[in-house]
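Reviewer 2 asked us to include a model.

Predict the structure of this chain.
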Amino acid sequence: MKGKLTALLMAACLVASSMAACGNSESSGNDAPAADSAAGDTAAAGDSAAAGGESEAAGDDAAAPEDIAEIKMTYLSMGPLPADLQLVEDEINKISEAEIGVHVTLEMLEPANFAQQVNLKMSSAEPFDLLCSMPSGTASFNNMASQKQLMDISDLLEEYGQDILDTVGDLMKATTIDGSIYGVPTWRSLVTSTYIVMRTDVLEDLGLLEKAQNMTSFAEYEEILQAVKDSEKWNYLAGIVASDLVGTCLPMGGCYMGEENFADFTTYDQLGDTNKMIAINPDGSDNTVINNFETEEYHKMYEKMKEWYDKGYVYGDVTTQTDKAEEMVKSNVAFSYFSQSEIGIESSKEATCGMPMTCVKLVTMPISTSTCNKFVWSVPTTSKEPEAAIKFLNMMYTDSRICNLLAWGIEGTHYQVKDGVAYFLDGQDANTCTYHTCDFIYGNQFLVLPWDGQSADFRDIALEEMENAETSVYLGFACDTTNISGEISAVSNVISEFLPSIDSGVAAQEDYDAFLEKLNTSGMDKILAEYQTQLDAWLEAQGQ
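Predicted model (C-alpha cells):
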C-alpha cells in the first residue's frame, strides 16, 4: 500500500489547480465550531489565490449562464452553523461555475437532526445531489445503500471523476457492492487509534503530567483518577465521562482493551457494521463471524468499567449525559474521557475542549471497511443532476482552493496563513470567527492547510502513518442486510436499550446477562448466519 498511496497523493496535488465563478445558499447560522480533526497540505492553500493553471475538468472558456447546472450538497455541520456560509458558498461558485459549469448550494445540517432531515428528504423525493453520510444510524452509508437510496455512480466516476478513482485507489473497495460503486470515502487520515484524553492543567497542578504521558497500564491511570478524586482542588471533576450522548465511556469499536497493560490490546474488524455487534479477527486467521458482545474480551471491558463506576471514577449521571465529552471538559465538569481519533488529536482536542489536553495512545486499529465508511460522499437517488454532482465532487478531491474554502473559509476573512499553517485572524478565535469548520469530510483532507498547532509538514507525517498502517484482509466486504433488516432493527433497539448502562459500568451483571439473552431472542443468530454466508461467498470470489 505504501508506494501506491504516495503516488496517488502526488497525483492529486498535480491535478489541483486554480479556478474562478458565483452562488446562492439556503443555509446560515450564528456561530462557528472548533476544528475536530487536523491534517493538511503545506503546499496547497497559502498561495491559492495566486495559483496558476486549469483543472482537468475545466474548458478553455467559462460556461454560459444557461449552461450552469445547479446542485445541492448536504452534509454534517460538526457544530453550530457558521454565519458566513453564504459568503463561502459564493466564493466556491466563482470557481466551480467558471471552470466546470456547476453552481453548488451548501446545505449544512446540525448533528442532532441530520438523520431525520435526510430521511425526510428521501421519503418526500426531495431533489439533492451530494450527500456526506454519517458514521452510523439511518443516514449511514451502509443503511442507505441497503435501502437502495444511493445511485450506482460507477460510470459517472469513470467519465467525470477519474481523478477521484486515481486518488482514493484501492480504498474504493469499501464503497463497492457487487461490483458497483455507491459512494466515495473521504480521502483523509484513516488510521484510527483509541486514546485516553486528560486535562493537562489538572495533571500539572497535581505533579502527574510526566506520569500520565508515560503510563502504560490501567493501574497507573487508576492512580491518576484516584489522585484527582482525593484532591481538594479538583475532586468536583468527574474522572471519566461518556464520549458521546449514549453513555459510551469506552468507544472501542474495533478493539478490546487489555486487562491491565495497554500493550495487551487486540483489534477486530466490524465488517462495516455500525452497531458494534459484529466481530472478526482482521488478520484472516479465523474467518468466523461472532457476536462481539458475547466475547470474553468485551465482557472484561464491561467488568473494568463496572469497577471504575463502583469506585466513583465515572460521572454519576453518565447514562443521561446531555453534552459530549469535550463540552463536559470545557464546562469544567470532567477530567478525562476515552476517544477514537486520528493523528493530530492533541491540537484538535485542545480546540474542542478549550484548553490543553494530554492524549495517551492505547491501540491503533487496522484500516477496514468500517474505517472508510464513516464519512462517504454519495449521490442520492433523488438527484436531478448526478453528472454535475460528480464533476463538483471531483474538484473536492483535487482542488486545494475548494477544500480550504469548505474547511476554513476565505483566507484574509476567516483565517490567515503563516509558514504553511492556517491560523485565526489576530484577535479572533473559534467563538468569534464567522466561518470555521473541520478538515476531514470535504473530499481530500490532504489538500487542506494544517491548522494552528500542527506543523507545516503534518501532511507528510499523516501520510507516513497511512503507509505503515495495517489493513484488514476483509477490506471491501460489505454485507447486504436486506434479508435481515427486521432482525437488525430489533437487535439495534436492544443495543440502544442496554448498551449505555453496560458501556458506562452502571449495569449489574444480571443486566448484562439479560442483554445477551434479549439479543439472541431478537434475531442475533440469523444476523450472524447471514454475515457468515455472504462473507464465505466473498472470500471464495476473492480466491481465499
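Confidence is low (pLDDT under 50) at residues 1-60. The CA atoms of residues 366 and 470 lie 5 Å apart. We have added this to the supplementary material.
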